Amino acid sequence: MKVKTQLLLSSIVMNCLLLAACKKNGSGSNNWPAPMIKTETTNNNITSYRYDKQGRIVELVNGDWVRVDYSYTRDSLFYKTTEIATNAVQKVAAKLDPNGMLAAQEGTVRKYDDDGRPVEELSPPNSNGWQKRYKYYYNSATGLLDSTRQTESKLLQTRWLQTTVYTYYPDQNNTIGNENRGMGFMGKNSPRPVKISEIWRPKSVDPFREITNIMKLQYGYDEQGRIVVEDHTEDRADNTVVQWRTVYTYY
């Protein structure tokens, strides 16, 4: 369940903030920093979100599989994951830095730059002593995330595992980022939606080819400039092509 929980927190990897006026829903006036996603649906699987008045996530429900409840203190984030079918519960506590960003969770340490963008994530060593490190690289002119690089180290050895390279739509806004899911504590990301992402791995890791996945993304917007449709086309390492659509609704 631990892996599933981390995936739920981290699954939304290409994100950003679109500033907007305060919103209202059935609970009254809210001080929300951005358009807030209510549901996202992929292949008939619906994920729904609820937020507090500050726009922080308080509940995530993924279909009939899992519910995650979030609570906060000044320097901590707590989330409780419940498997809906079995009522099995797991509780996790994470440390927030003075700026309210996720700093440490179950041995994983995250660092951010002065703009609140993630720059590094360091996981604890595995049972064989290898420690994974994720680094984020930004374009100094545009502020967009150029690439992420994953390595692992042990003593004096370091080996490259994966690099993901991003290109963007320069004239479109992104409304499906961390802040739009109440997860600003994960860090701000690039302020434009991703057009293409390429995953590179060394052939020693993936024998098919060095570029193992190419993801192409297209978006549809509503009259308020919010992304309501996200179409994915994935060219995979085994030369298959997979397509799917995600549909978003907002409060």
UniProtKB/TrEMBL annotation:
Signal peptide: 1-20
Top-level taxonomic group: Bacteria
Keyword flag Signal: yes
Gene3D superfamilies from the UniProt entry: RHS repeat-associated core
Alphabetically ordered keywords of this record: Signal
Name of the protein in question: YD repeat-containing protein
Organism whose genome encodes this protein: Pseudobacter ginsenosidimutans
